[in-house]
Design a protein that fits this description.
The chain is elongated, with a radius of gyration of 27 Å. Helix 2 packs across helix 4 (about 90-115) and helix 3 (about 55-75) crosses helix 4 (about 90-115). By secondary structure, the chain is an alpha+beta fold. It has 5 helices and 7 strands; from the N terminus they run αβαααββββββα. The termini are far apart. It has a domain at about 45-115. It is about 50% helix and about 20% strand. Keywords: Membrane, Transmembrane, Transmembrane helix. Pfam families: YcxB.
């Protein structure tokens, strides 16, 4: 006796194969365990800090206003305009401060970076579905994905923040596109 095959039965193995392939790809992308080793040096840290500060609208506005003050003081000094009735000492000091405030912040941050020996060595980052294990020469830390509050990409580095001010710098050149996507999908927007 010859059995008849309906269309539904005929397509089931094909659909099942497609489903298994898609599930395998999904599991590969979203369930990864991998490690990278990264070291942040002083010039890279300085560049990341400057770019991070000058991306903020407040620092951009303050710098523009500082440049405005310095320009008007210089033009008044050279007699191009008669803008100030007295010597504009306060405007000069304010303009210099507003223009160089991000530089002062970066200088303080770099001095803290240099004073911490943990930053001068390689740091291994191990990623899994549960979170990140960060290991240096003298420390080991485990952070779950729920404790990563945000991520930023600045100047070739992925920064994973576990507080509003502190984060881990990971060299993006050490990550594949799939690994970067895995990390981004694990971070819950808060």
């Amino acid at each position: 006796m010859v059995s008849s095959i309906t269309k539904r039965e005929y397509y089931l193995p094909y659909n099942l194969n497609v489903f298994l392939i898609l599930k395998t790809l999904f599991d590969l992308i979203y369930t990864m365990n991998f490690s990278v080793t990264s070291r942040m040096n002083t010039p890279d840290y300085t560049r990341v800090m400057f770019i991070g500060l000058y991306k903020k609208p407040v620092f951009i506005l303050f710098s523009i206003f500082g440049l405005y003050l310095l320009t008007t003081v210089a033009l008044d000094y050279f007699g191009v305009i008669n803008y100030y009735a007295t010597q504009p000492l306060l405007e000069l000091i304010s303009g210099v401060f507003l223009v160089f405030a991000p530089t002062l912040i970066v200088i303080m941050a770099v001095s803290q970076f240099k004073s911490n020996p943990n930053f001068q060595n390689d740091i291994a980052y191990s990623f899994s579905d549960d979170g990140i294990v960060i290991q240096g020469t003298t420390f080991k830390s485990e952070i779950s994905w729920a404790h990563i509050i945000k991520q930023k990409e600045i100047s070739g580095f992925l920064i994973l923040y576990h507080t509003k001010k502190f984060g881990n710098f990971i060299d993006k050149s050490k990550l594949s596109n799939d690994q970067l996507l895995f990390i981004k999908t694990k971070i819950i927007k808060k």
